[in-house]
Amino acid sequence: MNYTKEDFGDDFKWGVSTAAYQVEGAHDMDGKGASIWDVFANTPGRTLDNQHANETCDFYHHYAQDIALMSAMNIPNFRFSISWSRILPNGTGTINYKGIEFYNKVINFCLELGIEPWITLYHWDLPYELEKKGGWTNRDIIGWFCDYVAVCMKAFGDRVKHWMVLNEPLVFTGAGHFLGIHAPGKKGLNNFLAATHHAALCQAEGGRVVKDFLPNSKVGSTFSCSYIQPYRQTERDYLAAKRVDALVNRLFIEPLVGKGYPVKDFKLLQRLEQFVKAGDESRLSFDMDFIGVQNYTREIVAYSYYKPFIWARIVPATDRMVDITAMKWEVYPECIYEMLKKFDSYKNIKELIVTENGAAFPDVVVDDKVYDHQRTKYLQQHIKQVLRAKREGINVSGYFVWSFTDNFEWAEGYQPRFGLVHVDFKTQKRIVKSSGKWYGEFVKSRADNSPWSIVNSP
Ligand code: BGC
Fold this sequence. Notes:
TIM Barrel, alpha/beta, 15 helices, 13 strands
């Protein structure tokens, strides 16, 4: 199937995504407080080769250059996040006006160049001062978070129309509070369940705060998801896949749309009850203007006697003779179509937007150029599946590539490169990769027979 950008319609939003901790650097400048990621990544043994994002791509000082590059690449929408501890160094209380000034400069420059800013309010970097009080495991987080959101609304709400409350709550609760491999490095079921319930409340309460201040804005929240399939056609694998699906794909969206936690398919979630207070059930739901779908791959799941609680294991893509990315994630473009279909099947979903999709590959710089044809192919194949969903009547209205520039990939450090733009982290030099050139030309193209306008996707 060939396709053109026009097949998506004029209103379709094309963009790129980043996140504060991954790109900003300037970790202690101009009054910024420490976040849990500053502390975690600067603790030996936590990340690949003890790498941290103290400087990373230094977006803090290169924002003008990067946004100008984005504009030169024809990219009309930019999703980025606000570092909570840059504007509220202690998490609550005193405002750091230098932090507000930085985001004002970013927003204003985007608008000046005709780029629409899309802001994620929380992309995993909780102020460390709040972590000292229990962070996401302390129910007081609801008040702290709502106050922070209100500060953002007052500071930026006159110009920013698109807001996302949380980025992928399952990842920061699961990796950060159960497995301990992300900040704040907590482990165990109770930490995970407490963080889960409080994050689920914050996603809805945060949405309400945005709408109270800005009734005409568009508010959503973003969800990680993977297409889940059983390894064998056996009942045990089928049930294992159901449990993983409930955990990975349904845990946060279902309370938001009023269905409650998916307890029926994953009984362990009943233990969330210990954290639920009177009135919480209705507080968990909120009618978002859009749902951000973030998908990269699919997972094949088998029953496992050795994995307590979930009794399931992921069959690694490396054992399955399939194409993989530098993250060892399978390249399986149909997964994004399947996930859009799944999210669309909930009642009252107004709009779906792919707020992240992309791939890491081992890029090489040759003569100041990066020929990353694997990434271009990956993007073309996934965009084609988004179109397939749209043609079947699913209301998907945008697509954002993760990521604009190479950046700090959390526990994996700088090894995986996801950018459309290559970054030399020593010199801060940027090189637009061939995937970035393709994406920019595609986004600009009209069906005019220019070589960019028709994608002959494999
Ligand atoms: C996150 C990003 C991350 C990307 C690639 C998403 O889980 O929102 O912060 O870099 O996936 O792993």
